[in-house]
Design brief:
mainly alpha
Length: about 110
Amino acid sequence: MKFILTSLLGILVIILGLSVYNLQKEFSNARESAIFYSQRSDDLQSELMRLSKECAQKEEFLVEIEESITKLENKIQLENLERSIPKKTWDEIKPIIDRLRVFQESRQDSKLSN
């Protein structure tokens, strides 16, 4: 009877030992994963801050361009300008003016849709 009880306790100790070992291994893996994801989160947050600053700078630049276009339109009558500038020069700057107008219209449309 003692032998059977001792054997059962021995088997139980071995099973519990293996369970504890597996739990320690899982806990170690969970800790490593938590450290990895914490570092990844920090990296992503710093990248997000960098991109946010870059986006803000580009937005400022776009606002400056838009203001410049508006100032130019207010100061210069394009119809009069076309008559006073030589045709060759006008043909060179006309596509630029058209692109700036399209840009300004698309910015205004996107602001209205937001």
